[in-house]
Write a structure and sequence with these properties.
The complex is a heterodimer of chains A (246) and B (158). Chain A is of the alpha+beta class. Chain A is built from nine helices and six strands. Chain A folds into three domains: 1-30; 32-61; 69-245, Glutaredoxin (3-Layer(aba) Sandwich), CATH 3.40.30.10. Chain A has helices at residues 2-22, 34-58, 94-112, 135-145, 152-161, 173-182, 189-195, 199-211, 240-245, and strands spanning 69-72, 75-78, 83-89, 116-122, 225-228, 231-232. In chain A, strands 1-2-4-3-5-6 form a six-stranded mixed beta sheet. In chain A, helix 4 packs antiparallel against helix 5 (152-161) and helix 6 runs antiparallel to helix 7 (189-195). Chain B has 158 residues and is mainly alpha-helical. In chain B, 70% of the residues lie in helices and 3% in strands. Chain B has helices spanning 5-31, 33-42, 48-71, 75-98, 121-140, 149-153; strands at 103-104, 112-113. In chain B, strand 1 and strand 2 (112-113) form a beta hairpin. In chain B, helix 1 packs antiparallel against helix 3 (48-71), helix 2 crosses helix 3 (48-71) and helix 4 (75-98) packs antiparallel against helix 5. The chains are: A alpha+beta (246), B mainly alpha (158). The interface between A and B is large, with 35 and 43 residues.
Chain lengths: 246, 158
C-alpha cells in the first residue's frame, strides 16, 4: 500500500536526520504549514457560520405593540383575534426570555393585526430563584399593575429585556416603577407595584397552572408553556404559531 | 515491527475519543440554540451581548475541532486548542461552584439553573479533566494512525 511505503520512506528520512544530528550537523528545514492553514480555515469557517446565525437573528427589528389588554384576576387577555392561545411565563425564567426573543415579534404582529388573542398568565414558579426570594411574584404583580396603567404590552417586553439573572436580587420595586414611568404609566402605578396586591391572585393562578395535568410534560410543569384549548402544545415545533393562526 | 506502534494506537484512540466528544457536544448545542443561550447565561459571567456571541459560536467551533480531530489534521495544534477550551469550561464550572450558583454545565446540551441539590460539579470537572488528559496526550505525542497529517503534515518541502 502507498501509505506503507510512505511511512517507510519517512522512517528512513528520520533515521538519516538522526545520524546527521548525532554528527552535529543541522540540516535546514522548512516547516510544512499546510496543517496549520487547514486548521485555521476550518475554524474561521465555523466562526463564520455561527456569526451568520447570530446576525440573522439580530436583524429583526422590534415590532411596536398597538394591541390592547385587559386583566381578570392574574390573567391578562391581549388582542381580540379569533385564534386563542394561553401563554404561561415567569419573568425570571431564562427560557421565557428566549421565547420572547424568538416569538415575541411574531406574537405582537399577530395581536396588532387582530388575528390572535393571547391570555398571558404571569405566574411565579421561580420565586426561590431570586435572593431574596419573591422576584417572580413582584414582577408578575408589576405586569398586572401595567394593565390599568395602559402600558402592559410594552411593559411585558421590558421585563424580559431587563430580565435579572437567576440567583440575583432581581429588579427592585424602584426599578420596576421607573420602567413604568418611562413608558408613561397612568394612575397609581407606583402604589400598585409597592403594594404587591396581586400576589394572592398570582399564587392562585400559579397553583392552578402547575397542578393542571394538561399543561405538564412527563408530570412536570415548566415555563414557558403555551396551551391551545387548555392543552399544552409542543414548542419544539417552531411553526407552532403559524399553525395556531391557521 | 516499529516500537512506536502501540503508542500510536493509544494516541489514535485519544484522537477519536476527543473528536467524538466535540462532535456530540457541538451537535447537541447547535440544534438547540435557545437552550445553549440559557446554558451559557447561567454561568453568569458575560454580559447579554457576550452570552449571545458565545452561544452562537461555541457549537460550531466545537464541531470544527471535532471534524479536524476526526480527520487528523494539525493534531497537535487542534489538541492544544481543545485543551484551552476545556480549561475555560473547567474554570467556568469551578467559578459557578465557588460562587454557590446551582447550574447544570450544559456540556452536552441542556444547561441552565437546577435545584440546589441537583448540581454535579464534581462529575463535570472530573469528566473534563479526563478529556484534558486525552488532549494532553496528543499535545505531547501527536502521532496517530489514520490521520491526514501523514499525508500533508510530515511531507518535507523543498
Amino acid at each position: 500500500m502507498a501509505g506503507g511505503s510512505r511511512a517507510e520512506k519517512q522512517r528512513k528520512q528520520e533515521a538519516a536526520q538522526r545520524r546527521l544530528a548525532a554528527a552535529g550537523i543541522q540540516a535546514p528545514q522548512k516547516r510544512n504549514r499546510t496543517p496549520m492553514i487547514v486548521v485555521a480555515v476550518v475554524i474561521v469557517l465555523a466562526v463564520a457560520v455561527g456569526g451568520a446565525v447570530l446576525i440573522a437573528r439580530a436583524l429583526g427589528a422590534d415590532v411596536e405593540p398597538t394591541y390592547t389588554a385587559k386583566a381578570d384576576g392574574a390573567v391578562v387577555t391581549a388582542g381580540t383575534g379569533p385564534a386563542v392561545i394561553d401563554v404561561y411565563q415567569d419573568y425570571i425564567c431564562p427560557s421565557c426570555e428566549r421565547f420572547e426573543e424568538r416569538y415575541g415579534n411574531d406574537i405582537t404582529t399577530a395581536l396588532n393585526e387582530g388575528r390572535l388573542t393571547v391570555r398571558f398568565h404571569p405566574i411565579a414558579i421561580l420565586d426561590e430563584q431570586s435572593n431574596p426570594a419573591g422576584y417572580s411574584t413582584r414582577a408578575a404583580n408589576a405586569a398586572l399593575c401595567a394593565v390599568p396603567a395602559g402600558i402592559f404590552p410594552r411593559y411585558h417586553k421590558k421585563l424580559f429585556d431587563e430580565q435579572p439573572a437567576e440567583g440575583s436580587a432581581g429588579l427592585s420595586n424602584e426599578q420596576l416603577i421607573q420602567f413604568g414611568t418611562e413608558l408613561g404609566a397612568q394612575g397609581d402605578f407606583a402604589g400598585c407595584v409597592q403594594g404587591n396586591s396581586h400576589a394572592d391572585a398570582i399564587a392562585k393562578e400559579t397553583d392552578k397552572a402547575t397542578k393542571d395535568p394538561a399543561l405538564q410534560t412527563e408530570g412536570r410543569f415548566g415555563t414557558p408553556t403555551v396551551a391551545i384549548d387548555g392543552k399544552k402544545i409542543d414548542l419544539n415545533d417552531t411553526s407552532w404559531l403559524q399553525k395556531a393562526l391557521g | 515491527m516499529d516500537r512506536a506502534r502501540p503508542l500510536d494506537v493509544v494516541g489514535t484512540l485519544a484522537r477519536f475519543g476527543l473528536a467524538a466528544v466535540w462532535l456530540v457536544s457541538g451537535l447537541l448545542k447547535a440544534v438547540d440554540p435557545d437552550q445553549t443561550y440559557v446554558a451559557v447565561r447561567a454561568y453568569d459571567v458575560l454580559p447579554a451581548a457576550g452570552v449571545e456571541v458565545v452561544a452562537a459560536l461555541l457549537p460550531w467551533v466545537e464541531l470544527a475541532l471535532g471534524v479536524l480531530l476526526l480527520v487528523g489534521v494539525g493534531t497537535r495544534l487542534v489538541a492544544a486548542l481543545s485543551a484551552a477550551l476545556l480549561l475555560v469550561f473547567v474554570v467556568g464550572v469551578a467559578q459557578a461552584w465557588a460562587r454557590g450558583l446551582s447550574i447544570d454545565c450544559g456540556c452536552f446540551g441542556g444547561g441552565g439553573a437546577v435545584e440546589p441539590g441537583e448540581t454535579t460539579y464534581v462529575q463535570e470537572i472530573v469528566r473534563d479533566v479526563g478529556f484534558l488528559l486525552m488532549a494532553g496526550w496528543l499535545i505531547v505525542r501527536p502521532r496517530t494512525v489514520l490521520a491526514l497529517d501523514d499525508r500533508i503534515g510530515t511531507r518535507r518541502l523543498g
